[in-house]
């Protein structure tokens, strides 16, 4: 009887030990809502990254990786509560997400409170690794400054006159602020700025204000648009014929579904975070091949980002020799790792991942459903002087 009890206790302890040995990662992201497509790509990429990093075993040093999904529904209060739940009740070792910058900003203090790592992917606002940053935050996604500096290189120049249109929240305002800063010294003039609600579908009033500000000035005139989600401002403003005022529309890259609208803009230039044909490396080759085989489409904008986050998490755990938070921070500060975009580096000062961007020119092919952002040149880490904005 005693032997049975002892064996039972030993068995229970072994099971408990095995359960405790699991590496738990929470993916907290907007599975439902306007950014649902971004979210799916991010999660697919995260799982592919963990798979690639572990050679398909989904284990690190014999410990099983368990990914717990939580849906923020794009609500900041949900993101905050779900991250606390993940760190507290679920006892995850680290978390990844979210999609929205507004949700991310609500989540940052929770990571600091629980003293646990949050890998931000793909939320973009500069303030995430800037004014609102804390030492538990690492971001694999690009920030607004990386978008801005890359687009400034692609678009700026002497006698270039630019109007801007963006959504009136952290992503849009941080993006335009960084874009303006990046253009300083290039000879480019920002003529006017328009900010509209995130759910805007009628751009008539904003466009008319832009046209009135731009119509009587001389120079190479562009309307630079920063936008996420629906609404399709570029096509709607293009239908208003900005060319009658000598204005060309310009923007950065986007997901494949959104690139369909770019077919109206052959020859348009800008800079993008990722397009599956641009990077040339072994990991991207694997991603393209596997994504085509499993999903029947090329990997998209946020698939690459999700994969970068998965690869970063696995690389950090391997380097740290476990999931202790302080060991992970030590391992991740300055860490270099390979991604579908090539090398990324977590900058020690703000934990922002430095990475390549891609200067493109739109090419239209009737046999392809979307416009092709054909590579002009890769903008490497050394080409992109990204400011440190956290005051450290």
UniProtKB/TrEMBL annotation:
Belongs to the leucine-binding protein family. Keywords: Amino-acid transport, Signal, Transport. Pfam families: Peripla_BP_6. InterPro entries: BCAA_transport, Leu-bd, Peripla_BP_I. It comes from the Bacteria. SUPFAM superfamilies: Periplasmic binding protein-like I (SSF53822). This is Amino acid/amide ABC transporter substrate-binding protein, HAAT family. Residues 1-21 form the signal peptide. One of its GO terms (biological process) is amino acid transport. It comes from Thalassovita taeanensis. Residues 23-363 form the Leucine-binding protein domain.
């Amino acid at each position: 009887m005693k032997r049975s009890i002892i064996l039972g206790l030993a068995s229970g302890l072994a099971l408990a030990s095995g359960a405790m040995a699991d590496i738990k990662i929470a993916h907290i992201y907007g599975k439902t809502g306007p950014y649902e497509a971004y979210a799916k790509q991010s999660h697919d990429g995260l799982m592919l990254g963990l798979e690639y990093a572990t050679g398909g075993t989904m284990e690190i040093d014999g410990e099983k990786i368990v990914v717990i999904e939580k849906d923020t529904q794009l609500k900041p209060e949900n993101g905050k509560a779900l991250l606390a739940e993940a760190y507290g009740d679920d006892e995850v070792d680290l978390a990844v997400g979210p999609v929205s910058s507004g949700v991310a900003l609500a989540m940052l203090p929770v990571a600091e409170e629980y003293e646990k790592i949050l890998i931000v992917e793909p939320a973009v606002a500069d303030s995430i690794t800037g004014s609102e940053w804390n030492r538990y935050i690492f971001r694999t996604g690009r920030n607004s400054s990386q978008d801005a500096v890359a687009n400034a290189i692609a678009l700026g120049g002497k006698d270039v006159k630019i109007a801007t249109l963006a959504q009136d929240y952290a992503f849009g305002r941080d993006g335009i602020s960084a874009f303006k800063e990046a253009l300083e010294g290039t000879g480019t003039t920002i003529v006017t700025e328009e900010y509209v609600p995130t759910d805007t579908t009628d751009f008539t009033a904003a466009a008319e204000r832009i046209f009135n500000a731009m119509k009587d000035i001389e120079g190479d005139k562009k309307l630079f648009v920063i936008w996420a989600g629906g609404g399709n401002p570029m096509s709607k403003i293009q239908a208003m014929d900005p060319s009658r005022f000598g204005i060309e529309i310009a923007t950065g890259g986007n997901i494949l579904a959104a690139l369909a609208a770019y077919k109206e803009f052959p020859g348009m230039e800008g800079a993008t975070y990722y397009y599956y044909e641009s990077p040339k490396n072994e990991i991207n080759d694997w991603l393209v091949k596997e994504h085509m085989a499993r999903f029947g489409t090329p990997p998209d904008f946020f698939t690459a980002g999700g994969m970068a986050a998965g690869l970063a998490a696995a690389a950090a755990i391997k380097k740290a020799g476990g999931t202790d938070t302080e060991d992970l921070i030590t391992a991740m500060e300055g860490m270099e790792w390979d991604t579908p975009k090539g090398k990324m580096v977590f900058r020690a000062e703000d934990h922002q991942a430095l990475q390549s961007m891609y200067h493109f020119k739109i090419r239209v092919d009737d046999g392809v459903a979307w416009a092709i952002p054909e590579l002009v040149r890769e903008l490497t880490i050394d080409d992109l002087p990204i400011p440190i904005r956290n005051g450290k």
